[in-house]
Task: structure prediction
Amino acid sequence: MRKIRTKFSEAKRRKRNQMIVGIVLILVMFGSVFGVIVGSFGKDKNNENIEYNGIEFFEQNDFWFASKDGLEFVFRNNPEQVKEIGVELNYFNNYEGKPLYVYSENYESELEVLRNFFYQNQIVQRVQSACLNESADIFNLASECVTDSPIKDCEDNFIIIRESNDTGIVQNENCVFIYGEQGNLTKITDEFLFNVFGIRV
Result:
């Protein structure tokens, strides 16, 4: 009699344990499905698409991707996030197949230029750090450029990115001066790129 009762209570206990495990597994499965659904809503919300001047920009991993005339672009900002600066600049075809010299006081801004002129599109022949000749230097950079980089003037394609309390983009022959506060330099650089590549019209 005792053996039968023990087997019966053991079977009952096993059945109860299986039921608890089953309920826990069901809760975990529902939780996982709910998490995936909520995550996918969040992704759709974060990965936005915008259209600007007939060009579609889509956001992925904090970058904005776009294509125009067979060129592929990657920007930190889209044109709607960047203040428009009225400026006349040489178009990108003035850079094609030629070396591009860069002096930059902001690494992220420099990467924006490299990504779109060289890594993504191979527009320029090569990119190289350089210092600006004093005669072409409208911002007194020569004294600050202390690297072993070659000294160039505005006969060469030269992009100068520097920190300043003022904000602007200036084209002087083949030199482009991009300047602004440290926190805004990437946006100002994107504004330069939007103009050079004809995205901003």
Q: What stands out?
A: Confidence is low (pLDDT under 50) at residues 35-45. Residues 49-196 form one domain.
